[in-house]
Every structure is written in structure tokens, then in C-alpha cells.
Amino acid sequence: MEKPKILIVDDDEEILRQMRWALKEEHEVFLASDRTEALRVFRQERPPVVALDLGLPPQPTGVQEGFQALQEILALDPLTKVIIITGNAEREKALWAIQEGAHDYYAKPIVVEELQVILRRALHLYRLEAESLPPLQREIRPEDFPEILGSSPEMRKVLALIKKVAPTQVSVLITGESGTGKELVARAIHRYSPRRDRPFVAINCGAIPETLLESELFGHEKGAFTGAHIQRRGQIERAQEGTLFLDEVGDLPLPLQVKLLRFLQEHQLERVGGREPIAIDVRVLAATHLDLKQAMAEGRFREDLYYRLGVVTMALPSLRERGEDILLLAQALLQCYVAESQRKITGFTPRAMAALQAYRWPGNVRELENRIKRAVIVAEGAHLTPADLELASSYARYEGRSLREAREALEREFVQRALVKSKGNITRAATDLGISRPTLHELMAKYAIGH
Question: Residue positions of the PTM 4-aspartylphosphate (predicted)?
């Protein structure tokens, strides 16, 4: 029988050796002595239980690194049971960690038999919770999609839909605000499709002048127009047997919408200036940030093309709807840009983490990338601050509050706004928030919010 995995995180090498020796009979034990190594092992092995010492380098006498490790582990898998290992004098910090999502704590000195009881209980609870999830949720693991970071319920729904549609040949319309990662989703669909070894060709329909767009899509024959000195294949032909991704398809002019519809119906095209039809075998994925139903009502987008492109429609959540993913994405981006710049920046201050989660992110992931990339360049300390991220004003509303208090204040504000917007309609407010009616009722009771 396969042993359950456990990760021990402590900067004391002697404690790590003792723990491995004591626990190896019942567990497959993995060790880490700092936050970076802990996250690397966790991403690779996904242990259901983690024993974590809050005092990690480079601040072994503080708890900032330990708290950040706790938050990042729970962002990767909220079901993980994290046991805080602490000294008797640090009981208050351990209780704070439990408020932030840790499962339990254990005070040193370590008595193996006592710790084993806590670990067994945590593992049993993890299994019960994992088995209670719907089957599809148990199958979806964020590491299946390394190009898409996120483990929030909203992103798990997206990943589940990717797995459903990828093996098929149906066209998919991906909607969402600018900067939400629509092309990443399209690439993931291609990667898990039978066409994965064939070309993936992306074209931004809104970035090419209308006078050139037809030739760019369909190609042209020599002499078709002034300047057409050679025959040229279009992007549709270049995607032969692979996947064609039409980004910002809502920006296509109506005459090209007609030609694209004809291609989708007949699976063949004629180059500009050509007369011979060319058979094409491609899968078409499309994306837009526009409301195409409104565009149809206004006569700016063809209804028949909409239904051809959107056999399946996939709506991507905005970054502000993915609260628990924000710190995960921020940390991953920080590691990337620190490696590029070779600067000695190890994380975010607690205030910066609160500011990241309080901010509304109108530019979504693209804006997050921009702010962190800039902050890595201008920061003077080892941890990024709200000022480095240009989020000082966003943090000001939560000045003096803990991260948990800031989250709760933001959550209360979201619930109140949704109820005002829906004029007290619980069903509509719950839908807008992306939660169930019972969950909304619980939040209203928690924050004493009336109808």
C-alpha cells in the first residue's frame, strides 16, 4: 500500500533528520529548510499534510517567511492540512496562523507519538474532504495546466471545461475582460487536443488594419493588388491540420465576417485574387472582450457567425473574481522577474499582500505582471512594499488591519454591493458573486447584513 506523503519544513537540520526517522514508517517524508524549497517540493509532490515551522530563513527569528509559505501552500491547494510547529512562547503566532487557514499547531519539544496522532487525524480529514468533492473536481489538478496558474474555484471550472472540450473538434468562443489570459486558455485547449503536434496559429483581428486583414487571414495570389509581388499563404492556411486562434474576433468588419462564415461552413477558402478553392482542415478557437450579443443586437456582429464560433462558450473570470489566486500569481511572477533581473528580492511585505488582494485589478493579470515587473526594478528592500507596487492608496483603506481583517472587509463590501445592485434579490446577488445562495446567506449572517 502506498504511504501517504508528508512535507516537513524547518530550518533546523537536526529536527528534519529526527522527523524523517520517526515518521518514515507510516509516511513518505519530504524535507525542506526554507520557503522556496518547500514550495518547489509541494508543487511537485502535492502532500496532503505539511508540518511547517513559521521561523524560516532569511528571518529565522521572525514569522513572515513562514506565514507567506502557509498562504502560498493553501493557494495551491486549499484542502492541504498545515500543522504549525512552534515553541511554547510562540503560541499566539500559531493561533494567528490557524486563523489564516492552518489546520492545527504543535508545540515543541516534539514527542513523536503525540505528533503522529495529529498527523493521522489531519490526513483522515483531508481524505474525507477530498472524497466529498464532485468527481470532476477531484480529477482536475492545476499542475495539469502549467501555462495557467490558479487553483480558485473559478479557475478550476475553467480547467475542467478545457479538459472536456480539448479532445473534441468543436469550435470554442472564449470571452472575458482584456488581460484575463484568453490566449493561454486557447493554447491549453490546443495542447490537450489531438492536433497538439500540428501548428497553433494566433491572429489578433483588432490589431491589423482592415485593408490588410483579408489578405492576412486568407492569403493572396501574385498580382492580386498593388504590392502583391508574390503569392502568399494566409494564417488560415498556415494552421492547416492544427488550430487557428482568432483573438478579438468581435473586431472583424462585417464583409470579413461573411467570408469567415463561408469558410467555416464549407471548410475551404479562396485566396485574395484567386479562383481555386483550397480545402482546409483546422480547428477554430476565437476570443473577444466584447459583449457579442449586444453587438448582434446593434447589427455589428452576425448572429450566424456567433453560433458557428461559439458551439461552446467559455467565460474567463476577471482577476478580482479570483481572490485566492492573486498571491499565487504574484509570487510566481515575482520569482520569474527576480530571476531575469538577478535582484535579491524574496517576497512581499504583509501590507503589500493586503494591498494586492484589496486592489480591483481593472487590467487583470496583464496589469499584475506590469506592476510586479516594475516593482522588482525600483524596490530598495528585500520585500516589495505597497509603494513599490504603486498600490499605497489601495492599502490605505486597510491600514492597521491584519490580512484576515482586510480580506473580511473586502468580502463584506462585495456582498453589500451585490445586494444593492440586485435590489435585495438573493439569487441574482449570489449569481453575480459566483457563489451559492446558502453561502451568501452565511456571509450575510457573518457580517450582519440585512436584505
Answer: 53
